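Honest question from a wet-lab person: if I give you the sequences of every part of a complex, can you actually get the arrangement of the whole thing, not just the pieces? Trying it with mine:
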Amino acid sequence: MRGDRSLYILFFLGCALTGVLILYPAYYAVQLSFFDADSFISTPVWVGLENYKTVLADSEFWSALIRGIIFAGTAICLQILLGIGFALILDSAIPGKIILRGITVLPYLLPTVVVALIFQWMLDDHIGILTVLLENLGFEEAATWANSPFWSMVLVIFVSVWLWTPFVTVCFLAGLQSVPEEMYEAARVDGANAWQRFWHITLPQLRPVLLVVVLLRAIWMFNKFDIVWLLTGGGPMHGTEHLPILAYRKAFDAFDVGIGATISTISFLILTIAILLFFWRFPIDERK
Amino acid sequence: MSEKDKKGSKSENIGITEKEISRRKILQGMGAVAGTAALSLHAPYIHAKQKEIRFLNGEPSVQSVRAMRFAAAQYEKETGIKVQMDTVPAGKAFEKVQTSIKGGRPYDIATLIFVGDVLLLAGENKLVPLNDIIKKYDWGPNILFPMDGNNYWYPYDYNLCWINYRMDLYEKAGLKEPQTWDQLNENMTALMGDGENKTKQGIVHPIASSGATNYTSFGYLWANGVSLLDDDWNVVLDDEKNLGRTVEYLEHFQSMVPMMPPGLAKAGWGILVGGIQNGQLSHCPGTGRLIDVINVKNSELASNLGIFPFPSPDGSNVALNHGYDGWVVLDTAMSDEALRFMEWFSDEHLINFLHTSPVHYQPTRMDIYEDARWLSHPDIEKFSHITSWQKRFLTDENVIIKSIDTEGPYPDMRAGKIFRSYALPEMLQNKVLKGMPADECVKIAADKMREVIAG
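Yes, you can. This is the full assembly:
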């Protein structure tokens, strides 16, 4: 009985926290998207779907959406590929495995702002170690990345991969521990080579982990604001400006809270639809 | 003896029955006592509570915070009113003001650095006029930004943007302060090179979509007599008069690019200060903050810095990019107290505060330039060659002081929206990074400005 009461208390506390910290702000943002307001203190004027019409007719929005998909898609693919690769290496019998596993997680432990500053210094136009390296390798255009939308996008993707691949690695490493060794032994007896063992045993066994990791990374990368903002601020020439940055710029910089909220709401809807499609195509609950 | 028996006997001992002291009775009694206590204590508590003015300071340097806290302590000592000082970077002050209003506990006084934010708050009736305080003093030009005949802010400094240069290098190379764009380019070229008394680059002007670009990269445009808006709020950047002049400005800017360091699209305040501090640049646009910062770290270098306004193509005009900071008093229950504090601070402590960044906090009140207290600071004397320029900037009618956010016939949000649209920085990006023809860059910028104003 006492256990039931604790359960109810914790449940209602969770609901209350979710309501106050997530549902109400989300509701408020959606509500704001139907109003025209210069700031958060202005008296909002009801405009119905006008903001949605404006945003959907704005080429800035579509460009930002495409850039967001490129940024998130590329970063997720690289994180998954590298994460699986590193997990396989760390799962094999290599010397110093435990120390290596610790080092691998290190980037994930660093605060994003620290990572952004480190990379800005390493890519400084004059004294950056990576700048000098790139120049010596013949990539002079990459050395002046800040002036190039393409190279700025490459940079934010690279840093995102560096920063969050360890999370993927740890997830896959944990998944690998649950694959029964007997399956590999049976496969070896049947003459399967390393690639065949990976393709027919490891990958299917990692499927549930893979699906969860792809889902989480997709949500996080699509909404990722901090690293892009800190590294490039969305520039140059809007070259790295995706939906979260566009929404922030409109709401907090351009005196257009309504449009900022509309962009956020549309972004939320896109992500929700994408997740529902993902669940429909890749159901995670295998008991069904 | 059972527990009940024990209780019963105890009750009987004090002469009342168990029924009389039931749990409900006890709870009722406690509730009555608590209620009476709350009612009796509440009113005196309110009356006895110390009055508090909440002040949002937007100057986060140690010296400035210390000066503000000292003033707050003095005020509390003299009046018994506490001044609670919160500090945020100036760029974040407006967000903090908004959240304080939405949160139901607005600040009583706040720092703002953008006229658009002041107009927005005043338009929403969130500010109280400072007319009585303002009319006490003689103010410099183009700094009060009145709205409907009321003054809603107390500007405490000009942040005019000029060009800083290395006086020592000029002297050794026998150069004179430039009067024209060509002379400026010639001077920079003469000072560029390897070896002693040479710099790697001439100057840096940011081109990113940022406040730094808006403040530091358009002085030449103003010096060339360009206006963004006419008296009816029409965009005139690409009209017959201004198009040619803006094209000239863009061509001049392009001519300086080879003398600038790479990475202009991410250049910000740090690069401006760092470039001249590490000897890489001979010139650098900026406000007095640059000199104050360098003075702390390298006093000798700071002594070798001079300033001049942005020149024009033919030497007929000079210009400065406008900048300012100020305080507003919000419409709260403590507004009257806040106004009294502002008046007291203005008379008693403003100069102490200005001294915490002596060159950067250029006085907005003309009386301060003659005030012995202000003049007594050693850095005002040390940089007299700069502070004398500062006063002249305000009194010389030939000096143009303009900025994107203060364009137009009167202070209005429309200019603020153009500032925040970064239409002019994008004009520079189109020219410098994309290599587009100058007139096309101007047309695109003008169209964006029209779109922003219409929206």
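Two things worth pointing out. Chain B has a mean pLDDT of 89. The two ends of chain B are 87 Å apart (CA to CA).
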